[in-house]
């Protein structure tokens, strides 16, 4: 399952540089996560780095982009391969 950023985002800029896949970018109002690039850091780290650094806890799983661990790992391999 990809992650998403909710409207509780305060645009603190700490999540974007932490994403190893470049999935996070500034949107019109708040930061956004591209579900095609988000692997929840599977293949890179044990925990999603954006969630780890977010000071307002506004990065939940995106229910519209459900993926298994195996699917996230396959996406990681496609992105890095």
Automatic annotation (TrEMBL):
Gene3D superfamilies assigned to the protein according to its UniProt record, in alphabetical order: 3.30.70.20
PROSITE patterns assigned: 4FE4S_FER_1 (PS00198), 4FE4S_FER_2 (PS51379)
GO MF term list: 4 iron, 4 sulfur cluster binding; metal ion binding
Coiled coil: none
Pfam families reported in the protein's UniProt record: Fer4_7
Domain of life of the organism encoding this protein: Bacteria
InterPro entries: 4Fe4S_Fe-S-bd, 4Fe4S_Fe_S_CS, PSI_iron-sulfur_center, YfhL-like
Keywords, comma-separated and alphabetical: 4Fe-4S, Electron transport, Iron, Iron-sulfur, Metal-binding, Repeat, Transport
Residues annotated as domain 4Fe-4S ferredoxin-type: 1-29, 31-64
This protein's name: Ferredoxin
Biological source species: Sedimenticola thiotaurini
Taxonomic lineage of the native organism: Bacteria, Pseudomonadati, Pseudomonadota, Gammaproteobacteria, Chromatiales
């Amino acid at each position: 399952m990809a992650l998403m950023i909710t409207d509780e985002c305060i645009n603190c800029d700490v999540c974007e540089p932490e994403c190893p896949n470049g999935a996070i970018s500034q949107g019109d109002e708040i930061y956004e996560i591209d579900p095609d690039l988000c692997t929840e850091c599977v293949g890179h780290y044990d925990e999603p780095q954006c969630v780890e650094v977010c000071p307002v806890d506004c990065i939940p799983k995106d229910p519209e982009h459900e993926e298994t661990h195996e699917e996230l790992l396959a996406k990681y391999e496609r992105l890095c391969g």
